[in-house]
From TrEMBL:
PANTHER family: PBS LYASE HEAT DOMAIN PROTEIN REPEAT-CONTAINING PROTEIN, PBS LYASE HEAT-LIKE PROTEIN. Residues 583-597 have a biased composition (Low complexity). Keywords: Lyase. This is Putative lyase. Pfam families: HEAT_2 (PF13646). Catalyzes the hydroxylation of the N(6)-(4-aminobutyl)-L-lysine intermediate produced by deoxyhypusine synthase/DHPS on a critical lysine of the eukaryotic translation initiation factor 5A/eIF-5A. This is the second step of the post-translational modification of that lysine into an unusual amino acid residue named hypusine. Hypusination is unique to mature eIF-5A factor and is essential for its function.
Length: 722
């Protein structure tokens, strides 16, 4: 609490705690303090700080004072609008527990009411109100049962949560909670399951029935709730064990998750987990792994099953098995290495496990990376890259394998060097040679390594530029992206990037255009190639070419004649980019006016917005667009944006030659257009006198605002003439 606020609260408390000097039949001190605090708390029209201080003082008071103040606290729950006061009051009521039973109706009212706060604040108050009801205990059960039928999801979920916190005393709510296990809103269903598990024995029978006869959503949650029952009896154990063979994977997973809480004999538990680990359902295997993670002593006897999972061809099953085997430490290394020799075993998860256990047996990986089996060498290489802290021998061992005869091994060696990052900087010369490898995968990983591990290397720019001409798009794209990330330093790669605009792969052309765009006007030599892209069959590439040309500014002028027709393109993204490019490449504002005026009337809002931005970028010469902008205010959704665009012309005024167009707009059917035209005509200088008859006619306009603006315009014109 800030010092000034703490001082104020202490001052309030010290005032209220002063002994009374009147008479001998004094009220008990706690009653006096409660009365004074209640008086301040009941001042809804008074300063909010006074009510906050009173609430804080009550929170700091003894229990007797808080109980005495309960009537005022209840009133605050019903009437107080300040969120801070309400939260403090809820904390006090929660602390009172069963003594706050008279507050139950007010707490229910709080959950049912909208106090106009932000959504997050309202949600938090719902939670705190439900906590207060839970603290009251059994007397609040009937009220909470009623709240389970509320429309608001948050209220229903919090009511279920509160019933669970009450525990066995909430057993009358079991019939209300059971149907919620099948609720379409996951949060409500899960809160109901948690509550039923906490209620315990009285919920067991209905839960067993729901686990067997409920719908597909309710059955797994019913089993999950059974697993939450404290001190489960034989009924619970039997039901959970029966559902281990359920046809539903979700039910089997819920039963598997509950096994660890059943206090089964170790031999029985091991046998059940062995079966679950072989289950085809991924979720079931994960639940079994969760139980084993808490019982690592069972894992050594399950090594045969885990070994079969490693070679099953199922990557997720292998990941679970690898994770569990790491608990064996170095003893798992031979099992993991042998698993790599199985053709169907996934190398990645096994390499992760080897990285974990290899820290205790680094010599094993040194031997494995020279193993005759290429799959073993791959796993060892990946493990060396992923081991943390990294082994000092990792880089030398990986470099020795960089010329491995198997291309898959070389790929994984490079991937491992990438994982090591700057720690492997000494490998840069050897990796650079891999840029010429015949395998595109190896070239790609070599590129990735150089970008990550040697971003300031003097030869990196040349390396990346050369890869723009690679014959595989998978290499070209990241090379272009990496050059763009270099910023101005990548300027020398522009000729190669311009050449890539003619690549057969659309994604390469796109990456090349984005690189060129990042250099702005400095990339003027790319204009002819970009102009040719404007007729590309891909809308995305046409838009990218136009967008890139807009970034080049005046350098894009040669492409102007090819950009204007794109404002008729069927793709709105292309028209949007073309509008910006037309404004950037136009020889002057007069040339830009026909296409941009058309864009101001486009059906797509983003295209119209781009046209307004393009006009703004034309500077003072854009004054000739004032009539076009005013006319575009006929769309109500654009009106505010148009008015913002027009503000820049309030000092300079419209182009004098546009007065006839503005006069025509005085007769527009839209009031907003007439109003803007009347406002801007007087700013056109001496030419505005031609508008006097039309403005005079607006004195009979049906809009009072237009009539007033016309009068003001006439007065301004006549004043200028004088």
């Amino acid at each position: 609490m800030p010092i000034p606020e703490l001082f104020r609260v202490l001052l309030v408390l010290s005032h209220w705690m002063l002994p009374s000097s009147t008479g001998t039949d004094q009220e008990p001190p706690e009653t006096v303090r409660a009365a004074e605090l209640m008086a301040d708390l009941r001042r809804p029209d008074g300063p909010v700080d006074l009510r906050r201080d009173a609430a804080k003082a009550l929170f700091a008071s003894d229990r007797e004072t808080q109980v005495a103040a309960l009537p005022a606290l209840i009133e605050s729950l019903r009437d107080e609008e300040d969120g801070q006061v309400r939260l403090i009051v809820l904390d006090i009521v929660t602390a009172l527990g069963p003594n706050a039973e008279p507050a139950i109706p007010a707490l229910v009212h709080t959950l049912q009411s909208d106090y106009g706060g932000r959504r997050r604040e309202e949600t938090h108050q719902d939670y705190r109100s439900a906590l207060a009801l839970a603290a009251i205990g059994a007397p609040a059960v009937e009220a909470l049962r009623g709240l389970l039928g509320e429309d608001r999801e948050n209220v229903r979920a919090e009511a279920a949560m509160a019933l669970g916190r009450i525990g066995p005393d909430a057993s009358p709510a079991v019939p209300d909670l059971i149907p919620l296990l099948g609720d379409e809103r996951d949060r409500i269903a899960r809160e109901a399951a948690t509550a039923l598990g906490r209620i315990g024995p009285d919920a067991v029978g209905p839960l067993i029935e729901a686990a067997t006869e409920g719908n597909d959503d309710a059955r797994p949650l019913a089993v999950e709730a059974l697993g939450r029952v404290e001190d489960p009896d034989d009924r619970v154990r039997l039901a959970i064990l029966d559902h281990l063979d359920d046809p539903s994977p979700g039910v089997r997973a819920a039963a598997g998750a509950a096994l660890g809480r059943l206090d089964l004999p170790e031999e029985q538990l091991r046998a059940l987990l062995d079966t679950l680990l072989r289950d085809p359902g991924e979720g079931i295997r994960l639940e079994a792994a969760g139980v084993l993670a808490d019982r690592p002593g069972l894992i050594p006897d399950l090594v045969p099953t885990l070994t079969s999972m490693l070679g099953s061809g199922d990557e997720e099953a292998a990941r679970v098995a690898s994770y569990l085997l790491t608990s064996l430490g170095p003893e798992a290394t031979p099992v993991l290495v042998d698993a790599l020799r199985v053709a169907d075993s996934p190398v990645g998860p096994i390499a992760d496990a080897l990285a974990e256990v290899g820290r205790s047996a680094p010599g094993t990986l040194a031997r494995a990376i020279e193993d005759p089996d290429p799959r073993v060498r791959r796993g060892a290489a990946l493990a060396l890259g992923r081991m943390r802290p990294a082994s000092p021998e990792a880089v030398p061992l990986l470099l020795s394998s960089l010329r491995d005869g198997d291309p898959d091994v070389r790929v994984d060696v490079l991937a491992a060097l990438v994982d090591l990052g700057p720690r492997a900087r000494s490998a840069v010369p050897a990796v650079r040679e891999a840029l010429g490898d015949e395998s595109a995968g190896i070239r790609l990983w070599a590129l990735e390594f150089l970008v990550r591990s040697a971003p300031r290397d003097d030869r990196l720019l040349a390396d990346l530029s050369a890869l723009i001409d690679d014959d595989d798009p998978r290499v070209q794209r990241p090379a272009l992206d990496a050059l763009r990330a270099l910023g101005p330093a990548g300027r020398s790669a522009l000729p190669a990037a311009i050449g890539a605009l003619q690549a057969s792969d659309p994604s390469v052309r796109l990456a090349a255009a984005e690189l060129i765009s990042s250099h702005g006007g400095a990339a003027s030599e790319a204009v002819p190639a970009l102009a040719s892209m404007l007729s590309d069959p891909s809308p995305g590439l046409r838009a990218t070419a136009a967008r890139t040309l807009s970034e080049l500014g005046r350098a894009a002028r040669p492409a102007f004649d090819r950009l204007s027709p794109l404002l008729d393109d069927e793709d709105p993204g292309v028209r949007q980019a073309a509008a910006l490019a037309v404004g950037a490449s136009a020889p002057d504002a007069s040339a830009a006016r026909p296409p941009l005026s058309k864009a101001l009337g486009d059906d797509d809002e983003e295209v119209r917005s781009s046209a307004r931005r393009a006009i703004q970028r034309l500077g003072p010469d854009a004054a000739i667009f004032v009539p076009d902008l005013i006319a575009s205010a006929s769309r109500e959704e654009d009106r505010r944006s148009v008015e913002r665009s027009l503000r820049r012309f309030e000092r300079t005024g419209p182009d004098p030659g546009s007065v006839p167009e503005l006069i025509d707009l005085l007769g527009h059917e839209q009031e907003a257009v007439r109003l803007l035209a009347a406002r801007f005509i007087p700013l056109a200088g001496p030419s505005a006198r031609d508008a006097i008859p039309a403005l005079d006619g607006l004195r009979d306009d049906p809009s009072e605002e237009v009539r007033a603006q016309a009068e003001a315009a006439l007065a301004q014109i006549e004043g200028d003439l004088d």
